[in-house]
């Protein structure tokens, strides 16, 4: 095992431990000390890998997003139709947000404070749009849909999916973290829109 | 003319004058003094009608929204099809936001600061949803569309229209006032979604 591999392993372990703490207690209630203790690491060594909590938090969010993309790609490979795929993805997204509720990922998106996650989340949306374009192209090829411009349709679909999240937030809930009831309403609306979207693009054959 | 009528007239004149100033210079760059001067009113009399700038601003926004509803109702009465109606309404909304650009109406919606407009805008969205429900019901009756639950469809459509506005706001533009280019992108996306919406609900007959 090379020095680089050992370093990568250590970094991996730190991200895993931090993910557990962040997900359970939330980033604001987690200290670097606690993460070091969980791993029986010296604080100095922890700071060698991650100079501050913000950089560790970013690495954790990156990890979570990678897991998310692995999961949706796997689901897409196994679903039988484009309709089933899109509806399943809505549930995966819902479960994902609920699982990492305490991470404040949703809050960050709708917050106006200087959000260090902005770029990560923006890139994730771009990545999911490309993924969506592939799904629609595949549905086109299979004759399930008739879409002239799959990228444009994917962008539109992603805009609408993300948009629903914001538009149902009334004045009272706007800056709050998404609660479970609101998440359920969003989930239901996203499914209704998906059904419309599919109906609109359904092949005439 | 009764005392009440005269009072109403005066109030009306103040709102008209304030609207002009607010729309041109923006609320933050308009003073109560300037509005009083425009009307050759004493400051005391102006404050008799509106105890502070915030209450006058609310009255102006109320007026603008009433004008908006009058306009969309008129457009809806004259358009030949539901498709034409919905597409026209998007342009009316676009022009309306651009006309009152300096009022910061858009900013207020996406801002996290304590927004006194929250309730007014929330009510306006509710009012437009009811209006939309009527349009869809009419389209149903004319056989243009086949919608089982027009209120649900109207809510969904309104969510999506509002949502697009938020979802295309990237990290860099999120808390800024909507600029004209962004407004054009939103306008285009809203029309694309409207076409999909209509196609999905189009009557089979």
From TrEMBL, chains A, B:
Keywords noted in UniProt: DNA-binding
Domain HTH tetR-type, chain residue ranges per copy: 8-68
GO molecular function: DNA binding
Record bears the keyword Mitochondrion: no
PROSITE patterns tied to this protein: HTH_TETR_1, HTH_TETR_2
DNA-binding region: 31-50
Database matches in InterPro entries: DNA-bd_HTH_TetR-type_CS, Homeodomain-like_sf, HTH-type_TetR-like_transc_reg, HTH_TetR
Protein known as: Transcriptional regulator
Organism: Solitalea canadensis (strain ATCC 29591 / DSM 3403 / JCM 21819 / LMG 8368 / NBRC 15130 / NCIMB 12057 / USAM 9D) (Flexibacter canadensis)
């Amino acid at each position: 095992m090379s020095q680089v591999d050992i370093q990568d392993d250590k970094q991996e372990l730190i991200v895993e431990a931090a993910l557990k703490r962040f997900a359970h207690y939330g980033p604001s209630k987690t200290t670097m000390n606690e993460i070091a203790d969980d791993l029986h690491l010296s604080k100095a060594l922890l700071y060698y890998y991650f100079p501050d909590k913000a950089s560790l938090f970013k690495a954790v969010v990156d990890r979570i997003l990678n897991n998310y993309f692995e999961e949706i790609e796997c689901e897409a490979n196994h679903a039988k139709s484009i309709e089933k795929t899109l509806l399943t993805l809505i549930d995966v997204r819902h479960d994902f947000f609920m699982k990492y509720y305490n991470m404040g990922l949703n809050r960050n998106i709708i917050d106006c404070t200087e959000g260090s996650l902005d770029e990560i989340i923006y890139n994730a949306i771009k990545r999911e749009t490309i993924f969506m374009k592939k799904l629609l192209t595949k549905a086109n090829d299979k004759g399930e849909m008739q879409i002239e411009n799959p990228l444009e349709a994917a962008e539109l679909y992603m805009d609408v999916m993300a948009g629903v999240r914001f538009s149902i937030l009334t004045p009272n809930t706007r800056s709050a973290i998404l609660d479970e009831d609101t998440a359920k309403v969003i989930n239901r609306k996203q499914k209704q829109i998906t059904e419309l979207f599919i109906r609109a693009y359904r092949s005439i054959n």
